[in-house]
Amino acid sequence: MGPLAPQSDNGPIRYTHYLTKGLIMHEMSIAQSLLDIVTSEASRHNAKKVVRIRVRAGELRGIVPAHLNHFFQFVSKDSIAAGAELDIEILPVKARCNPCDTIFDVEDFNYQCPQCKDKDVETVQGLELMVQDFEAC
Amino acid sequence: MKIKVMDDILRANDAIARDNRNRLDEHGVFTINLMSSPGAGKTTLIEKTLDRLGMRCRVGVIEGDIETSRDAERLEGYGIQVIQLQTGSSCHLDANMVSQALGELDLKKLDLLIIENVGNLVCPAEFKIGEDHKVVVLSVTEGDEKPLKYPLMFRESSLLLINKMDLVEHTNFNIQEARQNALKVNPQLEIIEISCTDDQGLEEWDRWLLNRITVPSDTPTT
């Protein structure tokens, strides 16, 4: 039961108390998803211990590596990934210009093609959030 | 041994978000994910929207809050379907929370669903929840540099509402600067300047919504 009970059974408002596991930042949710993926892959390969995990995070994701690492250590402490080293690579933002196909580095989040100056551009790098691989024994 | 994974960390969330989107599409419910920093005026905007469009289409609201149900209580008098999601201490809604809320709503009786995310310009932008569009509210009592500080939020949104325009002359908020910053991050972003106090820009906001909502022809409009 959450801290707030429904005011009435028939009222228009229904309270759905969604109890999370005490999540506080997006890095925490991401750490939990990362752990779920790694532990399920590890058990599929009969691994006993995960020692190092490589993660690729696009710059637009706003991941603070120290935070992700901190939360990962917290959520993984009773798992086979406890103490695993997180190697987080931040990928800079790149975009492709739709009219002229130029691929360019997006600096200071300026989404304009440096060649033809068009603004019809698509992000091709910078939104990733991937588990690349991990070392286990 | 080295185990190759190459898996998207948010894949589970994105899959549930797609599922939510399919459920909403099946019932023809146009859904927006309304995001801003705390105090930018999301709930007041929802009240205004209900005042203005409540007779023309059937609106439902999912309110995301960390602890309280104050926002949902504010909407109680409108007699619409409101679901309050308390996120515990989570700073954003995710697809799974929204999926639970959708189970509580009678989707057959909705044309527009407004999901008010937790007040925060960082984390909500990370998590798809099944929306058709993300809409970001920036009020003139905040800074005009916000789009550059929180690029993902403005990059992912389809529409920016610059709110509290009635107060702009009392602030050092530079509208041109804010527009330029937002369009730099997202050249396709639509921008409407609004005030929920003197109603400026709200007709344009109504039109933006009504152009996208499908109201079944047998729905009573009065």
* Terminal-residue CA separation of chain B: 67 Å
- The helix/strand order of chain A is EHEHEEEEE
Percentage of residues in helical conformation of chain B? 25-40%
Number of strands of chain A: 7
* Oligomerization status of the protein chains: heterodimer
Compute the separation of the termini of chain A in Å: 42 Å
CATH fold name of chain B: Rossmann fold
Question: How would you summarize the topology of this molecule?
Answer:
The complex is a heterodimer of chains A (137) and B (222).
Chain A (H helix, E strand, L loop, with lengths): L12 E5 L8 H19 L5 E9 L6 H11 L9 E7 L2 E4 L5 E3 L15 E5 L3 E8 L1
Parallel strand pairs in A: 2-3
Antiparallel strand pairs in A: 2-7, 4-5, 4-6
Chain B lengths: L1 E7 L2 H16 L3 E7 L5 H12 L5 E7 L4 H5 L6 E6 L8 H10 L7 E5 L16 E7 L6 H4 L1 H6 L2 E5 L11 H11 L4 E4 L8 H9 L12
Parallel strand pairs in B: 2-5, 2-6, 3-4, 3-5, 6-7, 7-8
Provide the descriptors you would attach to this structure in a database record.
heterodimer, A: 137 residues, alpha+beta, hypothetical protein PF0899 fold, three-stranded antiparallel sheet, 2 helices, B: 222 residues, alpha/beta, Rossmann fold, 33% helix
Descriptive overview:
Chain A has 2 helices and 7 strands. Chain A is α+β, with helices and mostly antiparallel strands. Chain A has one domain: 2-Layer Sandwich (hypothetical protein PF0899 fold). In chain A, the strands form 2 sheets. Chain A has a 3-stranded mixed beta sheet with strand order 3-2-7, covered by helices on one side. In chain A, strands 5-4-6 form a 3-stranded antiparallel beta sheet, with no helix packed on it. In chain A, a hairpin with a 5-residue loop joins strand 4 and strand 5. In chain A, helix 1 crosses helix 2. The longest helix of chain A is centred in the first third of the chain and has 19 residues, at 26-44. Chain B has 222 residues and is α/β, with parallel strands linked by helices. Chain B has a single domain (11-209), classed as P-loop containing nucleotide triphosphate hydrolases (Rossmann fold, 3-Layer(aba) Sandwich). In chain B, 33% of the residues lie in helices and 22% in strands. Chain B has 8 helices and 8 strands; from the N terminus they run βαβαβαβαββααβαβα. Chain B has helices at residues 11-26, 42-53, 70-74, 95-104, 146-149, 151-156, 175-185, 202-210; strands at residues 2-8, 30-36, 59-65, 81-86, 112-116, 133-139, 159-163, 190-193. Chain B has a 7-stranded parallel beta sheet with strand order 4-3-5-2-6-7-8, sandwiched between helices. In chain B, helix 1 (11-26) runs parallel beside helix 4. The termini of chain B are far apart. The model of chain B has no long low-confidence stretch (mean pLDDT 93). Classes of the chains: A alpha+beta (137), B alpha/beta (222). Chains A and B meet through strand 1, helix 1 and strand 7 of A and strand 1, helix 1, strand 4, helix 4 and helix 6 of B. Strand 7 (129-136) of chain A pairs antiparallel with strand 1 (2-8) of chain B.
